[in-house]
Design a protein that fits this description.
alpha+beta, three-stranded mixed β-sheet
Length: 219
């Protein structure tokens, strides 16, 4: 049960991150579309999923929605003046009692699913490792449940505890801001001033802090 609630938290964090990613990418695409030969660092690429129960819309397999705006099954590009904006379709899981209908999104022998936004997962990575780790090949942010700060915040309580939730969001947001900047840094000529990446990280964090402000509301 604890794993289920952690997965829910991770899904919600990923939703906010991908909301920001989509908005930021669309603004960037409109700017870079005016530059001759501009490269899209965040083009949609096919990638296979690891789980056979990961589905996208359009099939006959009974399923349930596990994320209202999952990256699996996303359609469109980054938008821009002539492009089609991405549509983050709901993420589905196979479920015999589910009311949705889907088809395989990944897994062995299945059609590769679309690579779109970021994924967030909780994982035990050891007390000496960093609070979070970003894996660029599938754009997944792992939050380390065994890091002393994260472990203490979780304690013996629920993952719904406000202290743990706030920390989990902050850790994921910080890792996302760094990851996004690192991906852009790989573009030739994107950063011309050594201070530009620092400014970008600060701006990314500020945007996300605004999106996560509701976590600090007194209930």
């Amino acid at each position: 049960m604890a794993r289920f609630y952690l997965a829910q938290q991770a899904s919600e964090i990923a939703r906010l991150i991908n909301e920001d990613f989509l908005e930021f990418s669309n603004r960037l695409a409109k700017t870079r579309a005016r530059a001759l030969g501009a490269t899209d660092a965040f083009r949609i690429e096919p990638r296979g999923g690891n789980n056979d129960d990961e589905l996208v819309h359009g099939g006959q397999i009974a399923a349930r929605i596990v994320n209202d705006e999952g990256s699996a099954g996303a359609t469109g590009g980054l938008g821009g003046d002539a492009g089609e904006p991405r549509n983050l379709l709901p993420e589905l899981k196979a479920d015999a009692s589910g009311e949705e209908k889907g088809k395989p999104a990944g897994g062995k022998g299945k059609t590769p699913r679309t690579r779109g936004g970021f994924d967030v997962r909780f994982k035990e990575m050891g007390p000496d490792e960093h609070r979070a780790m970003y894996r660029a090949e599938d754009r997944t942010i792992y939050i380390n449940l065994e890091h002393p700060q994260v472990k203490t915040a979780l304690g013996s309580g629920s993952s719904d505890d406000p202290i743990f939730r706030r920390l989990a969001y902050e850790v994921a947001f910080a890792e996302y801001a760094i990851a996004l900047t690192m991906e852009f840094a790989q573009l030739d000529g994107y950063y011309l001033d050594p201070e530009d990446p620092i400014v970008d990280i600060r701006n990314h964090l500020n945007r996300l802090a605004r999106k996560g402000a509701h976590l600090y509301a007194i209930s």
